[in-house]
Design brief:
- It is a single chain.
- By secondary structure, the protein is an alpha+beta fold.
- The chain has nine helices and four strands, in the order E-H-E-H-H-H-H-H-H-H-E-E-H.
- Strands 2-1-3-4 form a four-stranded mixed beta sheet, with helices on both faces.
- Strand 3 and strand 4 (189-192) form a beta hairpin.
- The longest helix is centred in the middle third of the chain and has 16 residues, at 67-82.
- Residues 3-205 form the DSBA-like thioredoxin domain.
- InterPro entries: DSBA-like_thioredoxin_dom, Thioredoxin-like_sf.
- Pfam families: DSBA.
């Protein structure tokens, strides 16, 4: 079974969805027959590398609410994350452009470490509140997951993997993806949003049954 997951490093629901999907996969009898492919999706391709507004201000602007209402939205997401063991610090997130973070995931894929790269990027963004567009952050994450930092150093000034990131995003549009996370099973079935682990497990079993 081939599973493709579109997500963005700056999407809290994608982190929650990733954790729930991994829980479901760990409970799936045929997990060793599943190939997981992570696809890039950028919620805001025009975002600056250095934030000009706080994450709460941007959230309020996006939904046309007050800053206090935006903070309340963050509380609800934080509680959902805490329920599955993730401690988000959403009010102090550093919003930034995620292109280089996605490029790091693509580089990590060449060493079969893309899941680890994505996990560390989510942690840096939502828990540690680091700027994932920052060179030092990306180098540290590479080092943590066992990627030669020199490879990242040489990649960052170039356009390496940019085309792959953009291609993933364009592909999602062709599939009609409106938001992320978006999980596609064998290019036949899809699950949208940060569904609970039970929902992902149900989908895995359903696809397995129908594909036999």
């Amino acid at each position: 079974m081939k599973i493709e997951i579109w997500s963005d490093v700056a999407c809290p629901f994608c982190y929650i969805g990733k954790r729930n999907f991994e829980t479901a996969l760990s409970q799936f009898d045929e997990a060793n027959q599943v190939e997981v492919i992570y696809k890039s999706f950028r919620l805001d391709p025009t975002a600056p590398k250095q934030p000009e507004e706080t994450s709460v201000e941007l959230l309020a602007k996006k939904y046309g609410t007050s800053v206090e209402e935006a903070k309340q939205m963050n509380v609800q997401i934080t509680e959902a994350a805490r329920a599955i063991g993730l401690e988000f610090n959403l009010d102090t997130v550093i919003p930034s452009n995620t292109m280089d973070a996605h490029r790091l995931v693509k580089l990590a894929k060449t060493e079969e470490k893309e899941a680890s790269a994505l996990e560390q990027l989510y942690k840096a963004y939502f828990i540690d509140n680091r700027n994932v567009a920052d060179k030092e952050t990306l180098l540290e994450i590479a080092s943590e997951i066992g990627i030669e930092t020199s490879n990242v150093e040489s990649m960052l000034p170039t356009d390496d993997y940019k085309e792959a990131v953009i291609s993933d995003h364009n592909e999602s549009k062709q599939l009609g993806v409106q938001g992320v996370p978006y999980v596609v099973f064998n290019r036949k079935y899809s699950v949208s949003g940060a569904q609970p682990a039970e929902k992902f497990l149900e989908a895995l079993k359903q696809v397995q049954m129908e594909e036999e």
